[in-house]
Specification:
- The structure is a homodimer of 474-residue chains.
- Chain A is α+β, with helices and mostly antiparallel strands.
- Chain A has 13 helices and 23 strands.
- Chain A folds into three domains: 260 residues, BirA Bifunctional Protein, domain 2; 93 residues, Anticodon-binding domain (Rossmann fold, 3-Layer(aba) Sandwich), CATH 3.40.50; 71 residues, Translation Initiation Factor IF3.
- Chain A starts with 12 loop residues before the first helix and ends with a strand.
Chain lengths: 474, 474
Amino acid sequence: MKNKMITARDVDFAKWFTDVVRVARLVDYSSIKGCDVLEPNGYAIWENIQHVLDEKFKELGHQNVYLPLFIPESLLNKEKEHVAGFAPEVAWVTHGGENKLEERMCVRPTSETLFCNYYANSITSYRDLPKLYNQWCNVVRWEKETRPLMRSREFLWQEGHTLHETSAEAEKEALQMLNVYREFYENYLAIPVVVGKKTEKEKFSGAEYTYTVEALMYNGVSLQSATSHYFGQKFTIPFNITFSNRENKLEHPYQTSWGLSQRSIGGIVMVHSDDNGLVLPPRIAPVKVAIIPIVQDEAITKKAQEIKGILELAKIKTIIDDTDKSAGFKFAEQETKGIPIRIEIGLKEMAQKEMVAVRRDDRSKTSISFATDIAAEITKIMDNMHNDMYQKARLRNEQKTYTCTDLNQVKAVMKNGSGFIKAMWCGSLECELKMKEINGIKARCIPFNQERLANQCVCCGQEAKEMVIWGIQY
Amino acid sequence: MKNKMITARDVDFAKWFTDVVRVARLVDYSSIKGCDVLEPNGYAIWENIQHVLDEKFKELGHQNVYLPLFIPESLLNKEKEHVAGFAPEVAWVTHGGENKLEERMCVRPTSETLFCNYYANSITSYRDLPKLYNQWCNVVRWEKETRPLMRSREFLWQEGHTLHETSAEAEKEALQMLNVYREFYENYLAIPVVVGKKTEKEKFSGAEYTYTVEALMYNGVSLQSATSHYFGQKFTIPFNITFSNRENKLEHPYQTSWGLSQRSIGGIVMVHSDDNGLVLPPRIAPVKVAIIPIVQDEAITKKAQEIKGILELAKIKTIIDDTDKSAGFKFAEQETKGIPIRIEIGLKEMAQKEMVAVRRDDRSKTSISFATDIAAEITKIMDNMHNDMYQKARLRNEQKTYTCTDLNQVKAVMKNGSGFIKAMWCGSLECELKMKEINGIKARCIPFNQERLANQCVCCGQEAKEMVIWGIQY
């Protein structure tokens, strides 16, 4: 029953991934490398992600805005670490129509500088704070290596940018938004994650510190799945953003930013999907149920429509595949697209006044009587499916999480594959670079859940400062 | 009671417009001319516009996609009229990071070429048609003259792009989407419009023909408010898009595109607003009701919260202004922002167990008993407000619509102001250019509702072909 258009996942993971996203019609290539088309199936997932997160952001008091696409070079240059991090990979606009621009502009790779420029003119007093803004937009990073959804030159994301009266408030915001992302990954995408701080080397260019949500893909590679940054006054000072505080003195406000991108769709694919195509977590799937009549029959068609009506009334998006293709072909299509539940109705089911619901993830079947509360049954199956998908991924993460206390252990793990490597670290850049050099792994994060695995740094044997989770970066 | 921060509309319309959008915090300038910030109040209107239209598009079978921001120069050049129309005003990207690109790319001014490139690989048979795609995105047109919301270098819009098996189907689609826009303007923005076809000179670069929705602003200037284009095979031939038709022969499909932009927000301002600030049509206003306690009082605050609860249960978005500012100041703020209804509750109202609802557009007041169905009353007031705003604009349009049968009449109208000029036209480009030269007016459209005003062209006196509505273009 294997899909012939999809390379086996265990044979060639990279090829499998590209096959799945292409066959499921999530993404198509354009004529520019790394600038891909999000096709209807892919964009619909993004719309659902937007919908869930946007509601949450607003509930927490954030407002949406839209800032310009272009950043004048002089503006990008205002914060030194920031420009050093981003300038090598921005796209530059030099001409407007026939005319050369007086100052070239880059296409935003992220919008800290634009928000600072905007904020500088819009706050004067502590009464104007906090500013809790977010935008949904496209950004461009001109990377050399590209991969659909995971690393594209243009991508869609949201970026929150906030300003606060005190550092404590801003730090609380950065942590709060990290938790929003963590809960989103766990409760909607069924992806277990590790949360923590980035090391100095891995933090966002220009941040005081960066929180991160890290997820482990099926092949043991780590994905930075969302980040939340605390800037302190690192931008507000060079951008000269000031407010009069409660003591009526001029002060620079404290800043955060946080973002999640379409890469999250790539994460869904790499964590959950299989050799038959896409497996979508039910809470984020655009279409939840595909009803497939096993044979062409008027009574079955009528029943299918009736069930669709019941499900859609309960806001469970449902399609009926009543084309003249074979049932097997229809099953394969539904599986390729990752529709969480397939309802099969044939002559036998009609006679027994029941239908069969088949879960996409494990193909387990449930018979549901026509007479029962169908929407409630389907909801129950989807909830179970969500939990099982989450647990399955969690179990795999556990199996692929290794504790190492010396470099030989690290090498042994990396020889047999990869995953999260928990190991103590002295805190030096030197050891961080060495880990990369020897094993190709980077510090993914300093997790909040610290363990004292040993007293020595895994790399240099000096006194260990903290536990780091290491891994291969997407 | 006039707002001192806003120039009087009848004194300087352009200045009044800028004042209103700035004071209402719809838009802020950025450091790049013509690339503006949509502030929370402005973006929230755009979100509502998106919400209404997106639902309608999907109801009609359209799917959302996202195509790249960049168009390689060679791709833009494929359709000759199209590139001639857009190349003079595109922004060119020449460098990615440190490296010069092999081929420069423009930032999309519109996405026909990108859609054609995408479609070329995704259809093979008539079974793949129609393709009914839409995208919400930013586009860039490097214009010399800019004005917030109305003519900005970067703006937000939606662009629908569809492919069909037959010309009849595509033409039907173009007309259908025109009607979606017309109904949206009338039923949600309370803006009466004229619909018709553009002349050859004014049509979209590369289209067979263009349908347009034209609205008249307070100052008599016309706004092209949305357009819907029929392309026939003008792009599908040069882009070599083919499908095997029902006779199993290769054929080029028939195409449409249609768009509406953030300019519609500018239209709302220019049609409805006044010297006190923004007046928002209630069905598109992000916040519908502002409850203003006249004095600080615990019982009033409690009552305000109770009413807010009732209204929000009925999905009527409500805010309470319980700051310590004066009631007059709060009124002015609510009026500036264009919140459709203000509910005043003071001690007198508490004693009489009623509140006063004040409409933003005409300040008419309604007393509403606490005991009544408050949400139903407010809904009724908003419906009346919508209808009255529409009728007021319609009446003004009638007053500013002039019938002219010779050039002297046109000159007389233009001397006293401007508006829609209905006049017969011979169909020649020469007369169209002359109308522009003499009176600064362009053919806005050849309206569907034709009248035979005379037998001679208003300009040359030759035999008239059709009636045109002329006007000054924003």
